[in-house]
Design brief:
There is one protein chain. The protein contains 6 helices and 12 strands. The protein is α+β, with helices and mostly antiparallel strands and 237 residues long. The protein has 2 domains: 176 residues, no CATH class; 45 residues, no CATH class. It has a 3-stranded mixed sheet. Strands 3-4-8 form a 3-stranded antiparallel sheet. Strand 9 and strand 10 form a beta hairpin.
């Protein structure tokens, strides 16, 4: 399954609720470390590059499409790690040896995040979104995940901002990319956004006025609509 990265541009309408995050990516990229259930995704120790991934209000949907190690690595290279920056903030600072006064450069303490945990979380994102499409009952695993990961915990800080000429805006500042995506997911679901599964790739996509797609749309992109009907014609011939 291909992961879509959606570029967001400003428009005349202002969202009354902004979810923000100042995040960082490793300039040298990321690598897989270890094997089996103990494998992790780890930064390569490059310069931390500031980024604002939640300016894309559909990052949570891109993450929901992650189903393999390869897709997770593609997501992390684009947006950064989910829980922590690549290394602690003291990297790059220097100290002096007390006896020789020689400079002692710090070394990065790289944080690794478990691949299996992230793949399981992405699966729960998909199941929760699918539940909104099917309007059925949540599985026991999904119910437990919602209770453990979405309910009761503090995900960030709330503030009120004034946008010149446009009014007030509530700002939720997330603690991490993961908590920011949880906020996005909860906002979309609680805001009664509608999602459908693409008839070609089965990928979930948003429909309705806010998404700029008809409510009865059945394909996630024009390209998939063309591919679907092209395959049907090939089968008939």
């Amino acid at each position: 399954m291909l992961i879509g990265y959606i570029e967001v541009t400003g428009g005349p309408r202002m969202n009354a609720l902004e979810i923000a995050l100042e995040w960082y990516k490793d300039s040298k990229g990321y690598r897989l470390n270890g094997e089996g259930k103990s494998r992790t995704v780890v930064g390569r120790g490059g310069r931390l590059v500031p980024t604002q991934p939640l300016r894309n209000d559909m990052v949570f949907l891109a993450f929901a499409g992650v189903e393999s190690d390869r897709e997770l690595m593609k997501f992390v290279h684009h947006y950064g790690l989910l829980d922590e920056p690549s290394y602690d903030e003291s990297f790059g600072m220097t100290s002096f040896d007390a006896e020789t006064l020689a400079l002692i450069p710090s070394r990065p303490i790289l944080y690794g995040e478990y691949v299996e945990d992230h793949l399981a979380t992405a699966r729960m994102f998909r199941e929760l979104l699918a539940l909104t499409v099917q309007k059925g009952w949540a599985s026991r695993a999904l119910s437990d995940w919602i209770t453990d990961r979405m309910l009761g915990d503090k995900l960030g800080n709330v503030s009120l901002g004034l946008v010149s000429g446009r009014g007030f805006q509530i700002r939720l500042r997330a603690d991490s990319l993961f908590t920011g995506m949880l906020m996005q997911l909860a906002r979309k679901i609680s805001g009664q956004s509608q999602f459908r599964a693409c008839d070609l790739c089965n990928k979930l996509f948003e429909v309705g006025p806010n998404a700029g797609r008809r409510a009865d749309a059945t394909f996630c992109s024009p390209e998939h609509k063309i591919q679907f009907h092209s395959r049907k014609r090939s089968i008939r011939s």
